[in-house]
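lol forgot to send this yesterday, sorry. struct tokens for the thing we talked abt
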């Protein structure tokens, strides 16, 4: 996803595979939006989202969850995970870009954290 998003020329993407480092990486990178996988090794995605939401420097950063645990129909039904939108995996790049654009703050410069 990182490579394909950056190939558009519209996004700068930081990828973090360690959930314990995700919040600090996001603080350093200052993303306009965070894509957060629901299934993460050793950490519940809800914990990561809760830490981001509790962080004064990140609490306004939109979060979009990615998950293979739901169907596309469920993802398109308007349901949310902890109040955040989610996409069913595998997600197509056009679908991902649409979700990013839909949830980016109006003045965002397009920094995305994965």
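and heres what i got for the seq, position by position
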């Amino acid at each position: 996803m990182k490579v394909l998003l950056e190939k558009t020329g519209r996004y700068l993407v930081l990828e973090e595979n360690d959930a314990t480092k995700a919040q600090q990486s996001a603080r350093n990178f200052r993303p306009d939006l965070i894509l957060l996988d629901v299934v993460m090794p050793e950490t519940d995605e809800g914990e990561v989202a809760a830490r981001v939401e509790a962080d004064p420097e990140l609490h306004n950063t939109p979060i979009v969850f990615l998950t293979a645990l739901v169907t596309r129909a469920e993802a398109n039904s308007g349901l949310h995970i902890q109040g955040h939108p989610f996409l069913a995996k595998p997600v197509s790049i056009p679908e991902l870009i649409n979700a990013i654009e839909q949830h980016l703050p109006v003045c965002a410069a397009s920094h995305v954290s994965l």
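The first strand starts at residue 12 and ends at 14. anyway ping me if u want another try
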